[in-house]
Amino acid sequence: MSTTERPRILVVGGGYVGLYAARRILKKMRYGEATVTVVDPRSYMTYQPFLPEA
User: Fold this and answer.
1) Torsions phi, psi of 28, nearest 5?
2) Using H for helix, E for strand and C for coil, what is the string for the chain?
3) Cβ-contact 11, 20 below 8 angstroms
4) pLDDT digits (tens, 9 = 90+) for 5-53
5) Inter-residue contact 25 to 36 (CB < 8 Å)
């Protein structure tokens, strides 16, 4: 791997665990060491604890 090429990490799912994993990965690495991408079919996240129960 050349010095200009950096690892690309793909996190599938933008729920709580997916976002937590992406943040954790970024926190463990130096700035610019890798590219982390999160993909999810929705463009939003619902914070479920604030939703009323049925």
Assistant:
1) -80, -15
2) CCCCCCCEEEEECCCHHHHHHHHHHHHHCCCCCCEEEEECCCCCCCCHHHCCCC
3) no
4) 889 999 999 988 999 999 999 999 999 899 999 999 998 887 777 777 6
5) yes
Record the tokens describing residue 24, joined without a space: 């954790």
What span, in angstroms and rounded, lies between the C-alpha atoms of 30 and 10?
17
Which has the closest alpha carbon to 26: 9, 41, 51? Answer: 9
pTM: 0.72
Extract the tokens encoding 11.
Answer: 């996190």
Close Cβ partners of 41 (under 8 Å, ≥ 6 residues apart): none
Residue with tokens 């009323």: 52
Backbone angles phi, psi at 21, to 5 degrees: -60, -45
Terminal Cα-to-Cα distance of the chain (whole angstroms): 54
